[in-house]
Specification:
Largest sheet: 6 strands, antiparallel, barrel
Number of strands: 6
Number of helices: 1
Helix content: 10-25%
Order of helices and strands: EEEEEEH
Distance between the termini: 30 Å
Strand order of the largest sheet: 1-2-3-6-5-4
Structural class: mainly beta
Strand content: over 45%
């Protein structure tokens, strides 16, 4: 049996995202999210450990942009990230998003 590595529950949620890393800006789709990270569905390659800016288009059409680090990559499927430190405003937006799902 595989040991679950996640400490926080992830919730399925499909939202448009843009991520900016070493290879430029890429459009993708968020697949699930928690208070500490999310999974980005994309066929584009990315390196584990890469730091990036992830912008999530909220249902209100506002954008939540957070510094993030890639923690796992599945070729042809996408990658998981952990969110970096957030401002109070960013944390509030994330909390509101999770509460509204």
């Amino acid at each position: 049996m595989t040991e679950e590595r996640r400490r926080n529950e992830r919730f399925p949620l499909k939202l448009h995202v843009k991520w900016e890393g070493m290879s430029g800006i890429t459009d993708a789709q968020l697949d699930d999210i928690s208070v500490t990270g999310c999974f980005v569905n994309t066929a584009r390659h990315i390196e584990v450990g890469e730091l990036l800016k992830l912008s999530i288009e909220l249902p209100s059409s506002e954008w939540l942009t957070v510094d993030s680090e890639v923690v796992s990559y599945q070729q042809g499927i996408g990658f998981a990230i952990n969110f970096g430190p957030m401002s109070a405003e960013e944390r509030t937006k994330l909390d509101e998003l999770l509460a509204s799902r």
